[in-house]
């Protein structure tokens, strides 16, 4: 079993730097880092080792940040960090989503998107469900849910690139 103290000591700097890079606020990054490790403690049984634990922790931190933004009414939609950028860099998608006009475009794109892409994206982003849970809903595998989500995100990005 993984000890929280070990996780904290080993990964705190990376998680904090990542959150600082996306929040640009030291106090908020510190609060979110603490919250990240508390959530990690609660959900450590769900960590299946399918990715590096640092990536998992940063994902928890990013989701906590987006929850913070939603509570403040500062963002309408949340998307995953593209895999080609890695977990430690801010993405153009993150920046775009802060823009209300772009959020409206994304909602329009989602409205016209075919199933299961539309529902998988919605469950992951708005419902904040794990890929495992989404796979269970569709009676598919966790990998299927992950691939479907990433394809839907890719479609959204492609349409955003095409629109003026």
From TrEMBL:
UniProt-listed InterPro entries: RNA_pol_sigma-70-like, RNA_pol_sigma-70_dom, RNA_pol_sigma70_r2, RNA_pol_sigma70_r4_t2, RNA_pol_sigma_r2, RNA_pol_sigma_r3/r4-like, WH-like_DNA-bd_sf
One of the GO BP terms on file: DNA-templated transcription initiation
Domain RNA polymerase sigma factor 70 region 4 type: 104-156
Pfam families: Sigma70_r2, Sigma70_r4_2
Keywords: DNA-binding, Sigma factor, Transcription, Transcription regulation
RNA polymerase sigma-70 region domain segment(s): 7-74
SUPFAM superfamilies per UniProt: Sigma2 domain of RNA polymerase sigma factors, Sigma3 and sigma4 domains of RNA polymerase sigma factors
UniProt keyword Cytoplasm, yes or no: no
GO molecular function: DNA binding; sigma factor activity
Top-rank taxon: Bacteria
NCBIfam families linked to this entry: sigma70-ECF
Entry's family note: Belongs to the sigma-70 factor family. ECF subfamily.
Protein name from the UniProt record: RNA polymerase sigma factor
